[in-house]
Amino acid sequence: MIEMQSVYKTYPNGVTALNGIDVTIEQGEFVYVVGPSGAGKSTFIKLIFREEKPSKGSIIINNKDVPKMKWKDVPYLRRDIGVVYQDFKLLPKMTIYENVAFALEVIEETPKNIRKRVMEVLDLVGLKNKARFIPDELSGGEQQRVAIARAIVNHPKLLIADEPTGNLDPDTSWEIMKILEEVNASGTTVIMATHSKEIVNTVKKRVIAIEGGLIARDEHRGEYGYEI
Ligand code: ADP
Ligand code: ADP
């Protein structure tokens, strides 16, 4: 589902973030992306949903040539990709229900179907009873669960999580991890950038380590491999 060949990224300020990335990720995989700060992990992730364009190289996602895609076609690419961030990025003045419903493609969806789907995903993340709350009334872990519900409400083929447990305590991090595994078990590809040695070394998955803009390791059931 994801194929990168000889991908380079140099930002306009001259910093080279990626220095020749070759990788293939199949539909249904769960992949951790690890590596030191500044290694290029976020850049790697941003290239997947056309938040950034590579300076050189080919990126094919779901048979779409991402760098060559016209701006008007980018929303179609993004419809197949849910994204979860470290800082949740919920809309603060909207309810939990509205935060999730907002992300639904309303085209051809009846209000009844939207309601059904929103409540279904809120149930999946265990927050059906908080639909009327606003984000500030929820704990960090609950807010991250809302962000996951919002990211998967459209049934994306791919879920990208950029440090999803970075702001959470260990117990809450494990809850988030459990939900991401459930999402993956339903067939969704999950790519998770993380600094959590505990999670990577406990819940064994494919590990792609990026160092200095290159893939330093790519291992099935790999280890975190760094001290922090
Ligand atoms: P990581 O996510 O592993 O910390 P990043 O992809 O964020 O790494 O960054 C890789 C390198 O690219 C770093 O040197 C960083 O400072 C630089 N960089 C990231 N984003 C930009 C940007 N928008 N403009 C210029 N340099 C950037
Ligand atoms: P390029 O301008 O080189 O084709 P992109 O299409 O990736 O590069 O655009 C870079 C950024 O500029 C995008 O992330 C987006 O924020 C903005 N952008 C580009 N085209 C449009 C557009 N038609 N409407 C709104 N924003 C745009």
Tags for this entry?
10 strands, binds adenosine-5'-diphosphate, 31% helix, four-stranded antiparallel sheet, 228 residues, globular
State the gist of this model.
Homodimer. Forms a membrane-associated complex with FtsX. By secondary structure, the protein is an alpha/beta fold.
List the topology elements.
Elements: E1 2-10, E2 16-25, E3 30-34, H1 41-48, E4 56-61, E5 64-65, H2 74-79, E6 81-85, H3 96-102, H4 111-124, H5 140-152, E7 158-162, H6 170-185, E8 189-193, H7 197-202, E9 206-211, E10 214-219
Parallel strand pairs: 3-8, 3-9, 6-7, 7-8
Antiparallel strand pairs: 1-2, 1-4, 4-5, 9-10
Helix pairs in contact: 3-5, 4-5, 5-6
The structure holds adenosine-5'-diphosphate (2 copies).
One adenosine-5'-diphosphate is lined by residues 11, 13, 15, 17, 35, 37-43.
What does this protein structure show overall?
This is Cell division ATP-binding protein FtsE. This protein is α/β, with parallel strands linked by helices and 228 residues long. It has a domain at 90-155. The protein has helices at 41-48, 74-79, 96-102, 111-124, 140-152, 170-185, 197-202; strands at 2-10, 16-25, 30-34, 56-61, 64-65, 81-85, 158-162, 189-193, 206-211, 214-219. α4 crosses α5 (140-152). The protein is globular, with a radius of gyration of 18 Å. The model has no long low-confidence stretch (mean pLDDT 95). The site of one adenosine-5'-diphosphate (ADP) has 12 residues, from α1.
